[in-house]
Amino acid sequence: MAGFRSLARQVRDPGCDLALRRYSLRKCLEKFAPYGHRATWDHLCSRAGFGPEDRSPDPARLVAALEELEEARDVWLAYETDFTERRRKEKHDGLRRPGSVDDWHRLTWGGFGVAWCDDPRVHPGEPLAVVLRRLIAALEREPGSSCPVCGGERLVWKYGLDHEPSSGPVCADCGILVPRPVLSPRALEYARRGRLLVSA
């Protein structure tokens, strides 16, 4: 099975058939898809300016979509490297029990669904790398009361998500499943009750 880099080379290769180049970009999402496969594909298509069902997109637009995906992947891989180093140091220092961020991180290793969007048509509009940097910054600070990606405060608890965990706080503004570790216990409780948390 081809890895992300070899698939990316096929997307860029002008000697490859256009259908193969498009297919290779779709296959890249099996390796790295921050919003999930379908929502990440919809995001890349809309930002690069071709339709999700377009079988003959402009090759330059395919490459633009790939470049956005690669930049985001670099951001995430750097975070995972830092995360691994931190856990190694914590274990060396005797801290064996992982925290809530670690539990969440274990479910998203490799970058699949780190900012899960259950509705593939509802996702943040900013570049993927910007979204991931905001999410990472939120994971590294004290829990808050709003979406770490868009700052929205309309968090709704949804069940039956096509993801693990299958329920959780979803931002009604940008559509991501907000990682529980970035939200305070009060914000989580308000989302469960379907109430808006009003900042004091």
From TrEMBL:
It comes from the Bacteria. This is Uncharacterized protein.
